[in-house]
Design goal:
By secondary structure, the protein is mainly α. It has one domain. The protein has one helix and no strands.
């Protein structure tokens, strides 16, 4: 049961990291689009 909790915890942290990186990439794309519009 303890190992299962660790796996779930790591998965949650991993998904959070992925979501954070996706937000950063989206922000970069938006900045590029704004730059092109200018």
């Amino acid at each position: 049961p303890v190992t299962l909790l660790i796996v779930i915890f790591s998965l949650v942290l991993g998904s959070g990291g992925i979501a954070g990186s996706l937000k950063i990439s989206k922000k970069k794309v938006r900045d590029k689009l704004k730059f092109k519009l200018k």
